[in-house]
């Protein structure tokens, strides 16, 4: 009997001890959970605050729509090498795949500035969106024929497909090339806005010819496709950076514009002095190219910011756009 009592007392002590441990463990767990919950809440608050700060910074930054093309390289270099920061202007780049997307961002008031071409911008101005030119750019376009389609001259494009973008430099220049060559049969103009898709369709033999600027034109030439037309041979310069005129009326944005131009000019000087290869990392990041394409890019000069030439603006007047 005594033994039984002894065991029962020990069992009770053990049970009490176990219960105490359980309570302590629960308290610890609750403490840990509270600490974790508090830490999570703090992280959520910090993330929300960080997002709010980012939104505020973005709303104050000069928003610029750009395309993955070399005419935008001074803007990319100024951003990546901190030149905008040096001149006291926060710039937020909105990367688009086509000038049409840049137009839409401008129409939706999501950007103040954009890369484009005179055919597009003058049409926007005519349709009621006042724009001011920040600078002309060194953009040029080549009409490149698919080597498997055996297109070596523009007059061989009759009854074939040509890729470009409507109401744009590519539309205007493509029509100019075709009208000058007078193929016996009509040329089917296919709207392909995305500059990288246009190149892929040529490389994948899905189209007979496309209008391309750099670096896409170099990528096409490296695949042994044929240059049929080059806008530089006609002394036509249509690339521009444009800003919404209403935005320039704002004193803060006017200040940002002036600082942007200073940084842009500094970037142009640096590229001209050091060459494209010095900015291979920037080209890879923004233009979707590899070292082989960068190594084959033609030598380019990037002039300081200057207004488009009157002769080029005049070309946009009374253009007879053809229906597709």
Summarize the topology.
Blueprint: H1 2-60, E1 62-66, H2 73-80, H3 83-86, E2 91-95, H4 99-107, E3 113-117, H5 118-126, E4 131-136, E5 142-145, E6 161-164, H6 169-181, E7 188-191, H7 195-203, E8 209-212, H8 216-222, E9 226-230, E10 239-244, H9 245-248, H10 251-274, H11 280-287, H12 291-296, H13 310-315
Helix pairs in contact: 2-10, 7-8
Structure description:
The protein has 13 helices and 10 strands. The strands form 2 sheets. A 5-stranded mixed β-sheet has the order 2-1-3-10-4, with helices on both faces. The chain has a 5-stranded mixed β-sheet with strand order 7-6-8-5-9, sandwiched between helices. The radius of gyration is 30 Å and the shape is globular. The protein has 324 residues and is α/β, with parallel strands linked by helices. Helix 6 links the parallel strand 6 and strand 7. Helix content is 51%, strand content 15%. It has helices at residues 2-60, 73-80, 83-86, 99-107, 118-126, 169-181, 195-203, 216-222, 245-248, 251-274, 280-287, 291-296, 310-315, and strands at residues 62-66, 91-95, 113-117, 131-136, 142-145, 161-164, 188-191, 209-212, 226-230, 239-244.
Entry summary:
With 324 residues, the protein is an alpha/beta fold. It is built from 13 helices and 10 strands. It has helices spanning 2-60, 73-80, 83-86, 99-107, 118-126, 169-181, 195-203, 216-222, 245-248, 251-274, 280-287, 291-296, 310-315; strands at residues 62-66, 91-95, 113-117, 131-136, 142-145, 161-164, 188-191, 209-212, 226-230, 239-244.
């Amino acid at each position: 009997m005594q033994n039984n009592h002894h065991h029962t007392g020990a069992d009770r002590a053990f049970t009490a001890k176990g219960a105490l441990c359980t309570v302590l463990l629960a308290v610890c767990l609750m403490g840990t959970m509270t600490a974790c919950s508090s830490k999570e809440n703090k992280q959520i608050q910090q993330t929300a605050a960080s997002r709010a700060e980012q939104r505020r910074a973005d709303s104050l930054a000069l928003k610029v729509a750009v395309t993955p093309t070399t005419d935008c390289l001074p803007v990319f270099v100024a951003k990546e090498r901190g030149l905008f920061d040096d001149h006291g202007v926060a710039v937020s780049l909105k990367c688009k795949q086509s000038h049409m997307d840049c137009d839409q961002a401008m129409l939706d008031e999501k950007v103040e500035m954009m890369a484009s071409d005179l055919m597009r911008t003058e049409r926007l101005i005519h349709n009621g969106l006042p724009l001011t030119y920040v600078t002309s750019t060194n953009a040029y376009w080549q009409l490149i024929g698919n080597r498997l389609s055996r297109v070596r001259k523009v007059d061989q494009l009759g009854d074939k497909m040509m890729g470009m973008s409507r109401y744009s430099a590519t539309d205007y220049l493509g029509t100019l090339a075709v009208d000058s060559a007078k193929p016996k049969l009509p040329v089917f103009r296919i709207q392909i806005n995305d500059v990288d898709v246009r190149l892929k369709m040529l490389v994948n033999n899905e189209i007979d010819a496309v209008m391309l600027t750099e670096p896409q034109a170099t990528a096409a030439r490296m695949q042994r496709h044929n240059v049929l037309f080059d806008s530089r041979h006609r002394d036509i310069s249509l690339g521009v950076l444009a800003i919404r005129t209403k935005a320039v009326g704002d004193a803060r944005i006017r200040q940002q514009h002036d600082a942007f131009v200073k940084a842009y000019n500094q970037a142009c000087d640096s590229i001209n002095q050091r060459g494209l290869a010095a900015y291979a990392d920037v080209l890879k990041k923004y233009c979707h190219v590899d070292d082989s394409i960068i190594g084959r890019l033609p030598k380019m000069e990037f002039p300081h910011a200057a207004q488009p030439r009157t002769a080029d603006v005049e070309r946009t007047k009374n253009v007879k756009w053809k229906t597709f």
